[in-house]
Design goal:
By secondary structure, the chain is an alpha/beta fold. The protein contains 7 helices and 13 strands. It binds S-adenosylmethionine.
């Protein structure tokens, strides 16, 4: 399901979508506004209708797979090109081909792009990707030299998508289904593009020296026990932070 919103309501609409779909949603710029979309069922459709009323867009009914293609456009982030299988990458880039299936993470969302920026600035090491979704950050990490790479997610379709995408990109990712409270594997660096509440809950469960976080707005700043804040990036009202073990 998708909604079209004018620029004046964009920030409020994004905040609503974060609450309605904490597992993730997509965003594309349109003339005079933005389109926000989430993979959802009838219950999600009802929630969208409740919050957006007449602003609700057309249903993604028959042929929704094709319709999703409008949200899956290639992006360049530093040395990385992230795009769908039906697009052609330019030369001299590290190519990350993502077919998200029903998992979040085409690479185009600002929070994903901000995490990709930080990953390119870190010294490659072992990597834990918490909330791997389509596997986009795990795969980019592996291509950048991080090893081993473990991706965890609370949703089974994300694990399936991460494994499929890792295979088609020719990289090795250990993708594991976890519950929100499960212990997590240790790694030198971790990346977590999840909600701010989940990011804050994560710090105590994590054994990583470096932590890249995102999934929240520039007006928000996670407070992470045991970590000190090192850097911050922002894009289209979304923020990403780098933390180091205190
Ligand atoms: C916004 S998507 C990020 C996907 C991808 N990493 C990216 O950056 O594009 C968030 C993902 O985190 C997962 N998730 C949410 N809370 C989680 C938690 N506490 N532990 C692990 N995964 C979580 C969701 O199922 C979803 O796949």
């Amino acid at each position: 399901m998708s909604v079209h919103v004018g620029l004046a309501r964009a920030e409020e609409a994004r905040a609503t979508m974060v609450e309605l779909f904490p597992e993730g949603f997509e965003e594309v710029d349109e003339a005079g506004g933005i389109e926000l979309a989430a993979y959802t069922d009838a219950a999600g459709e009802e929630r969208l209708w409740h919050f957006f009323g007449s602003a609700r867009g057309d249903e993604v009914e028959a042929g929704w797979e094709d319709r999703w293609r409008i949200f899956h456009r290639p992006v360049h982030v530093g040395r990385l090109w992230i795009g769908p299988p039906w697009e052609q990458a330019s030369e001299d880039v590290l190519v990350v081909v993502i077919d998200p299936g029903r998992a979040f993470g085409t690479g185009s969302h600002p929070t994903t792009q901000l995490c990709l920026q930080f990953l390119q600035e870190l010294e490659p090491s072992s990597l834990l990707d918490v909330g791997c979704g389509s596997g986009v950050l795990s795969i980019a990490g592996a291509l950048l030299g991080f090893h081993p790479v473990v991706g965890v997610d609370i949703e089974a379709p994300s694990i399936e998508a991460t494994r499929d995408n890792a295979r088609s990109n020719g990289v090795e990712i250990d993708a594991r289904l976890v519950r929100a409270e499960d212990p997590l594997p240790s790694a030198e660096a971790a990346v977590a593009n999840i909600s701010i509440a989940s990011v804050e809950a994560l710090a105590g469960r994590l054994d990583a020296r470096l932590l890249v976080t995102s999934g929240y707005f520039i007006s928000e700043q996670p407070v992470l026990s045991g970590y000190r804040h090192a850097d911050r990036r922002a894009m289209n009202e979304w923020a990403s932070d780098l933390y180091e073990r205190a």
